[in-house]
Structure prediction request, 487 residues.
Amino acid sequence: MASTASTRTEFELSAVKFSRLTKRGIILGLSLPQVIALSVAVAVFIASLYTGGPAALYTSPIWGTATALAWVPIGGRKLVEWVPITLHWVLRQALRQTRYRRRVAKPRPAGTLALPGDAAPLRQYDDPETGTVMVHDPHGQTLTALVEVTHPSFILLDPGEQERRVHAWGRVLSTACRSTRIARLQVLERTVPDSGSGLAQWWAEHGNDDDSWVARTYRELIDRAGPAGERHISTISLSLDMRAAARAIRTAGGSLKGAAVVLRQEMETLTTALRTADLKPTDWYTAGQLAVMLRSAYDPAIAATLERSGEIGQDLATAGPVAVEETWDQLRSDSAHHAVLWISEWPRSLVYPGFLAPVLLSSGIRRAFTLLCDPIRSDQAARDIRKKKTEYISDAAQRQKVGQIEDAQQSAEYQDVLQQEADLTSGHGVLRYTGLLAVSATTAVELEAAVSAIEQAAIQASCETRRLVGQQAQAFVAAALPLCRGI
Prediction:
């Protein structure tokens, strides 16, 4: 009986719980913009009272507007929080930064990735030893490489194997946390139209093509049905913080050559950790593979053709889009319309590791799911946790003085901070997660239907999504391209 109980416990899949998104303000739950707006309203109202007469009535548009900005919510945010977003969007429109057209007669300088917007300064560096393409961001001082990872279907594994792989993936993330030289880790899972090359390759390796009627029928079936399917591709991008690794870079020779040596060390460490977790990393991407991936993101209609062609489209100088048109909540590129969703709330209740299956396995929708992981050093994480604890305790004391009741949301956030402190004390690393979903479709109508389907799938996964506005171009680069870009 004891043996049976231990076997049941050994193969039991553990549920997990995510920390809540912090919504605590600087005082009494109010954010800094709210405090500023309310201060303006109070100052104007008191000044008008001291002036006497109907001054309070005359100044009512000022203090009334400031009060409305601080308290009235729209789209999950207070009006005052929409002010900087709207002003930035209006400024970008005035400067014509929401439109991009490639200058065919005036090519970009050699070594650039030919991408629009904030990604325009990115440069390529081909590692002479491994042939890996490394993307250099001269402004952010980062150097990025990416690798494709293959793995068995997680939801088809038995609970014991799922639990083992979850812990193994946790060790991979813990390895990234221990390194002080990693700026960001990006996990990108995307769906692409299947060109039929996989079926054709399988038939070439395992089939018996004797030109019989059966072989001809099977060949025709592959030619017709192959391109109608879709497949999933998972990549992991590793970004080196060149500022944090400055000493190691100087020791390795300095400049990009020394940075490439340091990044290779981190690549080897990550590859070893992935293999230990029973994941199969391929060779690190070359310039041609990255060019095809970038071109396919902006121009999905050409993806299957590029995959079948072999050598066409493998030049990073021409991998960027020909035209990009950004609107308030959409992005249009060469052959598709795009929209980016932000996972604003992860599951608040206990869920099992496969909870994202409704989103990742949604068929008939072209989408890219990105998880941006920013490692936080242990000393910095400890300081942040102590600061949060102090702020929560002081806020609770302030609310008690004014007679404000503490709600369950604030108590839950404080318990999350205590849990993070306990995990950090136990030796675990701290990662800051950002989840993004880039949805693409051929027309605007199809895009809205696809976004609606993804939102419903996110609800089934116990997640809350919000459509990003005023920054779709920047968000698309972060969500659909494996360049470790943030928003």
